[in-house]
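Team,

Forwarding the record for the chain on the shared tracking sheet. I've put the sequence and predicted structure together so nobody has to dig through attachments.
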Amino acid sequence: MKYVIILGDGMSDEPLKELGNKTPLEVAKTVTLDKLAKKSEIGIAYTIPEGMKPGSDTANLSVLGYNPEKYYTGRSPLEALSIGVDLEDSDIAIRCNFVTLSDEDKFDDKTMIDHSSGEISTEEAKELINLIISEFNNEIYQFYLGTSYRHLLIWKKGKVIDLSQPHDILGEKISKYLPSDEKLNEMVRRSYELLNNHPINIKRHEKGLNKANSIWFWGAGTKPKLDSFQEKTGKTGAMISAVDLLKGIAIGSGMKVVDVEGANGTLHTNYEGKALAAVNALKNDECDFIYIHVEAPDEMGHQGNVKNKIKAIEYLDERLIKVFTDEMEKNNIEYRMLIMPDHPTPIWCRTHTSDPVPYLLYDSSKNEKYNWSYNEKEAKASDNVVDKGYTIIGKLFD
């Protein structure tokens, strides 16, 4: 028996008037998911412990069986593992986004327009982060290239301070959210002067794309200490994701990272490539368990783009889940599969919430018959509830 989790980041939502009081998951054409639901257990899971922020970090740790209240030390340290930064115990890792700020003359009057700078390409971001490195790197502050808009600052012998997530303050004036630390505040302000009229941003503006005209710090944390996934579960594991956070969790827990060409964390990621890479890894006994993470629904939620969120869900269904299940059947591989989001990213607020998420648990060796579809409403109606999200992987391995 093989095991798989397919994670549609931020896929669940809340009913929208423009969709006839339905969610994007209800409206999306999900032929494969609905077909699977007829043979699966569905229900809801609480992935965010009470009192913790609803981040992809805490939520994905939960889904993988790591209680965030025990294991979570911050998001950025996990991303540092993926980037290849060897953290010391006294280091503080901080996420450094390229963001789009509005163009008011006075810096404190600017608003947060876009947390991802229009999902800037890694190629463009590399040139910009190299400028930041040349201006700011020293023995205390060290910047590193990540992926797309997601980059990293290591603050040697620093301190964990409260920093605002840029996707939580979209459309708001930045003045009250700027870092309280004097040096971090100074670097954010100086970065706008360096980046706003950079040739890359001039070209982006001419194309109608959002500029990457400032850095923004958030997600500070210390060196993570994750138990071995194999020792915890008795299963060898592998991760497929375009996102450094997920790769970092995999590295920290001793799982294999499977890279897929064209997997970029956007709406137009390589869905088919992820599916086929997962099947190959399972077929060739490279692992017992594989985690396939898709970022696109979350990004569309942050953008408030309901049309593209629906499209991201449909792509996940038709181009990844269908390809994966067809190939597993073709290769006569028995498997158990858990499909779920990590957290909701509702269109109305464009950020994460702590509400429970719908899950689907399928076993290819069983032929159970139910009369439901996969969405938030029917999952709640099932009366199946997982109160502690970090236990749901036990249902998969049961």
